[in-house]
Design a protein that fits this description.
This protein has three domains: 199 residues, FAD/NAD(P)-binding domain (3-Layer(bba) Sandwich); 80 residues, Alpha-Beta Plaits (2-Layer Sandwich); 92 residues, 3-Layer(aba) Sandwich (Glutaredoxin). It has twelve helices and 30 strands. The protein has 504 residues and is α+β, with helices and mostly antiparallel strands. The strands form seven sheets. Strands 1, 2, 3, 9, 10, 11, 12, 20 and 21 form a nine-stranded mixed β-sheet that branches. A six-stranded mixed β-sheet has the order 24-23-26-25-29-30. It has a five-stranded antiparallel β-sheet with strand order 15-16-17-14-18, covered by helices on one side. Helix content is 27%, strand content 27%. The chain starts with a strand and ends with a helix.
Length: 504
């Protein structure tokens, strides 16, 4: 059963002295990235704790939102996608310039984006990890940490301390963990800022999106019929201080000529097009994931998806290192794989940010880009980037499947039909043998890799690439990416098993 330490509860022994609690991994930040990582580690039977400065997971206001296709697949791999799909709205939401990148013909069970607010996402995720052995220290902030050869001492507010083998910062773009670890955060300074808020209005606002030379603006009345969600680009780059209702009024008047009588704000926030990426995702026993590792303009809605996928890439690797299955060097593959993915996403969001500016020169660029994006080949390539379905980790030369996500095929086995994603619900690797039953022997790794003999009759098709040659066997990592492809022999299989899942 999960133990939650509230904001006024200290960890004390019988004499009333504050004690140091020990965990294998401590995650700082209980947003979607932190919770996803906690779930991954808990599934791998790692003692994991989350430190969250808020008193609970009730998020005021809807905030950001949305998942793209590959992230929905990742949640499907863990058997929880339906929880999010039940509350969200599926749509062809990926765009570039003025063109919707329709991906309804992509070979996936989820050829769409999911519109769902962050407060819903966090509530669903919090309910999920409540089913897992995850400890959450609510109402705490990290005030400092020190690492040595065997672990990290983490100092919390209220005078408490935690001891962990590894510390992971999932604490956002202003990450305390990243700064304290001395990890550089190079990139581009902001050139524009937006205000986002939920308020009430005495006047009826025009609905929809408006573009002008400053940027993009939008007004949307929410389901309660009273609250209006506002996104407006400021005329000048706003200060780093917290925005006020007066700031929002000024920004609205400059665009619409009126502030529509705004009042009773639920929340107001400011975001910019600052774009930065951590120079390193790891400093000894301290790692970063999500916005702690990369920040960007939210155009394209890729932030939450990037963070969740960081967590899924890191989770099983960190678990194997903690559990002694793999050497610490396995953690180096986390940055090696995720840093290039985020770098490309940052490049894409910077381009989208430029295309949102509505002056005449940019309009000419928008027209050209929109025409190109309406063509089939560019559409597929761009939709592959936004959706995350074209992610390709560099695992060397070989079959096109190598380093790419495994399609969720309907298999026929001796025990009946099953989906590949079903095999990944427990976050364990799978060796899928599609050749002669019993033709592959992984006995030395049988305690950590599932061996499934199966048959698949159908086309093997990958997003963007199209049809590929059917393999004889496939080694699937817990994150759903292919680590080895067999052509009828087991050449290279032992090396792949050792590299990813340890010495037998």
């Amino acid at each position: 059963m999960r133990r939650i330490y509230g904001p006024n509860q200290n960890l004390r022994n019988k004499e009333g002295v504050v004690c140091m609690a020990k965990h294998a991994v401590v995650i700082v930040g209980g947003g979607p990235t932190g919770m996803m990582l906690a779930a991954e580690l808990a599934l791998a039977k790692v003692d994991v704790a989350v430190v969250e400065q808020r008193p609970d997971h009730v998020l005021v206001g809807s905030r950001a939102g949305g998942f793209h296709s590959r992230t929905i697949e990742v949640l499907d791999q863990r058997g929880v996608a339906d929880r999010f799909l039940a509350e969200g709205q599926v749509a062809q939401a990926a765009m570039i310039a003025t063109t919707v990148l329709d991906m309804s013909d992509f070979p996936t069970r989820h050829p769409y984006s999911l519109g769902i607010w962050q407060n819903q996402i966090e509530r669903i995720m919090a309910a999920w990890i409540a089913e897992l052995p995850v400890r959450i220290y609510y109402g705490r902030e990290v005030t400092g940490f020190a690492q040595d050869d065997t672990g990290v001492d983490v100092e919390l507010s209220h005078g408490e301390s935690l001891r962990a083998q590894y510390l992971v910062g999932c604490d956002g773009g202003r990450s305390v963990i990243r700064k304290a670890a001395g990890i550089e955060f190079p990139g581009w300074d902001p050139t524009k800022s937006n205000l986002i808020a939920e308020v009430e209005m005495t006047e009826e606002p025009p609905r929809g999106i408006r573009h002008d030379a400053t940027g993009v603006h939008g007004l949307q009345r929410l389901e309660d019929g009273r609250t209006v969600r506002v996104v407006v680009t400021e005329q000048q780059l706003g200060p780093s201080s917290e925005p006020t209702l007066s700031d929002l009024s000024e920004a609205l008047i400059s665009v619409y000529g009126t502030d529509f009588g705004i009042h009773s704000p639920t929340w107001i926030s400011r975001f910019t097009d600052m774009t930065r990426q951590a120079a390193a995702y790891r400093a000894g026993r301290v790692l970063l994931a999500g916005d702690s590792a990369h920040v960007h303009y939210p155009a394209g809605g890729q932030g939450l998806s990037l963070g969740v996928q960081d967590a899924v890439n890191l989770g099983w690797k960190l678990a194997q290192v903690v559990n002694g299955t793999s050497p610490e060097s396995l953690l180096d593959t986390y940055q090696g794989e995720r840093h290039p993915v985020a770098a490309r996403a940052l490049q894409h969001t910077m381009a989208l940010g430029v295309l949102q500016r509505g002056d005449e020169r940019i309009k000419a660029l928008v027209d050209v880009v929109s025409e190109l994006a309406s063509m089939d080949e560019p559409r597929k390539r761009l939709a592959g980037i936004v959706s995350g379905l074209d992610i390709h980790y560099d695992l060397g030369e070989g079959h096109p499947l190598l380093g790419r996500r495994m399609p969720d095929l309907d298999l026929v086995t001796a025990h009946g039909s099953l989906r590949i994603f079903t095999l990944l619900h427990d976050a364990k690797p799978v060796l899928l043998n599609l050749g002669e039953p019993g033709g592959v022997d992984i006995t030395p790794w049988s305690d950590r890799v599932q061996l499934i003999d199966a048959v698949y009759v159908g086309l093997w098709e990958l997003p963007v690439l199209g049809a590929v040659t059917a393999p004889a066997a496939v080694l699937i990592r817990p994150d759903g990416y292919v680590a080895w492809v067999g052509d009828g022999t087991d050449e290279g299989l032992r090396d792949a098993l050792t590299a990813w899942f340890g010495t037998p």
